[in-house]
Amino acid sequence: MRQTILVTGATGTVGHEIVKQLAMQDVTVRAGVHSVIKGENLKRLPGVEIVEIDFTDPASLHAAFTNADQLVLITPLSESQLEMVRNLVEEAKRRGVKYIVRLSALGAGAEPGIQLGRWHREMEKYVEESGIPYTILRPAGFMQNLVNYSAESIKREGKFYMPVGEGRVSYIDTRDIAAVAVEVLLSDEHHWKVYELTGPEALSHQEMAAHLGEVTGKKIDFVDVPEQAVRESMLAHHTPAPIADAILELYAAYRAGKSAMVTDTVQGLTGRAPHSFRQFANDYQECF
Ligand SMILES: NC(=O)c1ccc[n+]([C@@H]2O[C@H](COP(=O)([O-])OP(=O)(O)OC[C@H]3O[C@@H](n4cnc5c(N)ncnc54)[C@H](OP(=O)(O)O)[C@@H]3O)[C@@H](O)[C@H]2O)c1
Predict the structure, then answer these.
(1) Distance CA 201, CA 207 (A)
(2) How far apart are CA 22 and CA 3, in angstroms?
(3) In angstroms, what is the span from residue 10 Cα to ligand 1's centroid?
(4) Which atom of ligand 1 is nearest to the CA of 10?
(5) CA 98 vs CA 66, 68, 131, 138: distances in Å
(6) Lower CB count within 10 Å: N or C terminus of the chain?
(7) What is the pTM of this model?
(8) How large a percentage of the chain has pLDDT more than 70?
């Protein structure tokens, strides 16, 4: 029987890519969106249904979970993220969901690790303790963060700013995270597994700027900036202080070269090498 797969966070950076790739398979994809207007693009994909949900409102989850066989559990980085995951896992238990793929983060298994990892580990535990078969995906930082957070300054002034010095990071292309998610959803060989996903190499941000410059033909520079300036900017943009501090802790790990680990998991699971940063820069050059 055709499976129905509910994808939460379906308009997000990873979620929309999973919906796109699942739409090419013989499954019904139910895209859980926070607002129907943002989900308009997903509606045009074959086999995709749109359903509006608010993770913080358990009553809103009912329709989304009706006849859902599998759940791709994606939540935003938010002060309410633990409550959101708890609500979604409780509903999955009540409604007989048979498999959960959880989007976590690299570092969730580290002890003591950093705050972002500890939050993710806590959320992983809700999934593990649900009794429902699961697969946990722990990706590195996303290459697409550059599109979401730095494309504007790159377009405007040919610069992007982060407090990370010369630290190398094994960023991953979200298209590869989605490819892994599709692979595990369509097989039952990945139950109870945890996969750590990275790109094929760890680059410094200076090297990333050089690749961006070469593919766009523009002069693009990376600028190392003090943590305090970044903190002030995040607070000015209404990022809650605990989230801003957790992000700065991640940047400090980048600076210290602690996020340079490379795994071969994407290749092993999909049979294809993950996108290099150069390939990403080429494919997204119009954004910059
Ligand atoms: N960014 C990275 O480099 C990175 C690396 C590793 C792991 N992660 C983890 O990956 C996860 C997803 O990150 P992402 O960057 O893909 O997130 P994202 O793009 O911000 O997507 C989050 C999604 O959740 C939706 N959403 C937010 N609040 C909601 C609510 N109350 N009810 C229903 N939907 C809601 C958003 O919809 P609206 O926009 O309409 O609100 C959006 O579709 C996070 O747990 C993050 O920690 C991120």
Answers:
(1) 11
(2) 11
(3) 9
(4) 43
(5) 13, 9, 10, 21
(6) N
(7) 0.98
(8) 100
The residues that bridge with 139 in the sheet, in sequence order, are: 197
Residue 81 Cα to ligand 1 midpoint, Å, equals 10
Looking at residues 162-191, what average pLDDT do you find? 98
Ligand 1 neighbours, Cβ below 6 Å, are 9, 11-15, 34-35, 38, 53-56, 74-77, 103, 105, 139, 141-142, 145
CA separation for the pair 161, 180 (Å, rounded): 30
The answer to whether 147 touches 153, Cβ cutoff 8 Å, is: no
Instruction: Out of 17, 51, 75, 81, give the residue to mutate to test ligand 1, the one with the largest number of ligand atoms within 8 Å of its CB.
Output: 75
- Say if residue 154's pLDDT is above 90: yes
- pLDDT, tens digit, 9 for 90 and up, residues 73-117: 999 999 999 999 999 999 999 999 999 999 999 999 999 999 999
- The ligand 1 atom at the shortest distance from the C-alpha of residue 84 is 31
Residues contacting residue 37 through CB under 8 Å, at least 6 positions apart = none
**Ordered structural domains, the chain, with CATH:** 4-139+172-197+262-270 (3.40.50.720)
User: Nearest C-alpha to atom 6 of ligand 1 is from which residue?
Assistant: 105
Mean pLDDT of 254-283: 98
* Sequence-ordered strand ranges (E) for the chain: 4-7, 28-33, 48-52, 70-73, 99-103, 134-139, 159-162, 168-169, 193-197, 203-204, 221-224
